[in-house]
Each structure stands twice: as structure tokens, then as C-alpha cells.
Amino acid sequence: MRWQLHVAKLAVMGRLPFGAGLRAVKRRFLGYPPNRGNLKGTLRDLEEMVGELAGMGRSLKGATVLEIGSGWFPVIPVMLAAADAQRVYLSDLTPRIDRGTLAATLGFLRSEHKDLGVVKHASRLEDFPFVYLAPLDLRRVEDQSVDFIMSRAVLEHIQKDDLLTLFRSLRPKLKADGLMLHCVDHSDHLEHHDKRLTKVNFLTWSDELHTLVNALTREGENRLRHSDYVGLLAECGYEVIKANACMHEPTRQIAKGLRLAPRFRDLTPDEIAVLRSVYVAGLREPRADFRD
Ligand SMILES: C[S@@+](CC[C@H](N)C(=O)[O-])C[C@H]1O[C@@H](n2cnc3c(N)ncnc32)[C@H](O)[C@@H]1O
Question: CA-CA distance, 135 to 133, in Å (whole number)?
């Protein structure tokens, strides 16, 4: 589908009276089958984040974990529970997970031959050590109680100022040796729907066009690049321990000839072609600047 049509569809659907209710009714009767490719991608990204933890000698067993933006299919929370996390806070802007999407997630994980460990017989949200915060109300999370904060495919949807606010508000929730792990997709998500676009098409847009598309779809991306996140985390009092950048070679080649918007013209093709990152960050000078 042409990206302009997709934007128009989202703009209309998001503004229909009773739009959310209609969607819920449709899903109730027709179900909401997950895209297996997406769920596999979620598993792969989680495995990388858990691998980073293991490499630092850290384990999920007995941990308290807060996931930002759990989405519709709670692959990450279920796998955290399977790894024996003691408590998993799920979060979102509004509740998205229901019995159907949980069942689809469990079906997917079981068909992937994933060992669901201690939750292998679980089937309802109440069977898991979950606390669902939708909206994300951090007053419900005790200060200095969280071992790990995680997100996957979420931060790119949060605008820069809101991201700064979020990072700052999360600081007090981490234990002194707590860690944040974030997996970010830096690509233009409209390319998922219109394959004629490059994966960094939105970097050619003026700020005005980008703002307009985000306003229409209400789910746009922030266009922050790999190094911007490192800077934002540092600005909010975190020490970035790792910043793994995954470069997309075809995009690197395309980037050499792209007519970028002025704000991106100083970026090298290598920088433009980083389409996925995993960040691991801890508290800088724990507790010293606790009350920011
Ligand atoms: C692309 S989905 C990713 C879902 C899931 N993490 C995954 O990888 O499958 C992004 C999710 O983040 C949620 N989200 C966006 N901004 C958020 C915020 N500020 N706080 C919590 N959740 C947010 C969206 O509502 C959506 O459910």
C-alpha cells in the first residue's frame, strides 16, 4: 500500500467515533492473529538483551523487571516469567493485552519449542507474576525496587522531550545496581507498509512534514539516531555501558546518494545506516543525584 494511503487510513481510523470500541468488537469475533515474523523478531531481540545481562554476570532469576510498552502480544513478559523473574511490570499507554492476545502469544511460544519453565501451565494473566500498568503509573512501582527496565521497539515512538521525562522518572525506580536495556528500531516504519520507500525515507522529510504525518497517524517516530540515545541517557544520569549498533549495508549504500533534510545532512552513511540498537545503561553515581 502506498504510504500516503496508509497514513490516510490511520488518520481516519483514529478519528472515527467509537473507533476503539469497533476494533475491540472486531477482534472479539474475528480474533487478532499475531504476525509470527514480528513475534520471532521480539524473541530475537529479547535473547540479545538477556545475552547482554548474562555477559555481565546478571540473571533474571528472582528479579523485578519493568517493561516499557508491552504491546499486544506479551512475548517478553512471558519469557521473563519463564526465566523465573519474581515480578514483571508490564506497561502501555492503554490496556492492549487481553485473553485472546495472551493465548496467541502462548501458542506461538509453545510452537517455537520455548521452554516456558515455571509458567508452562499458565494460561491467564493472573497465573503470571504480572502487574499491568496501563497507563504507566510509576507511583505504583516502589523506589529502588527494580532490577531491570526493558523495552523493545518502543522508544522510537516517544518524542524527545517525553523520552527525557521518562528516563528521568525511571531513575529512582532502579536499584543501585539496576540496569536498563532498550532495543530500538531506527528505521522508517512506513517502509513496512510501502516497500518502494527506503528504510530511512523519513530522514529526507522536512520537520514540518514529519510533524504533520505524526499528528495524522498519532503513532509516528521521533527520528532520533543511534548516538542521540546515548546522549539522552547520559543527560538523564545514566552511564551507557553498551551501545550495540546494527548497520544495514543496503541502506549504507543508498545513504550515499540520499538528499537528506538539513538537520540530518552532517550524518555519515555509516551513521544513517544504523537501523537497530541495543543499549545497556546503569545509574551514574548511584543515589548521589537521586532527587532529579
Ligand atoms: C511497536 S509496539 C512494541 C510492543 C512490544 N514491545 C513488542 O516488541 O512487540 C510499541 C508499544 O509501546 C507502547 N508505547 C508507546 N509509548 C509508550 C509510553 N510512553 N509508555 C508506555 N508504552 C508506550 C505503544 O502503545 C505500543 O503498545
Answer: 5
- Return d(Cα 108, Cα 111) in angstroms, integer: 5
pLDDT digits over 156-200, tens only? 999 999 999 999 999 999 999 999 999 999 999 999 888 999 999
Residue in 154, 163, 164, 192 to alter for ligand 1 test, most ligand atoms within 8 A of Cβ: 154
CATH superfamily of 34-186+224-283: Vaccinia Virus protein VP39 (3.40.50.150)
Residue 181 CB burial class (10 angstroms; 0-12, 13-18, ≥19): buried
Provide, rounded to the nearest whole percent, the portion of the chain with pLDDT above 70: 97
CB 103: neighbour CB atoms within 10 A?
Answer: 13
Residue 65's nearest CA partner among 146, 174, 178 is 146
Handedness of CA 236, 142, 62, 106 (dihedral sign): negative
Ligand 1 geometric centre to CA of 266 (Å) = 30
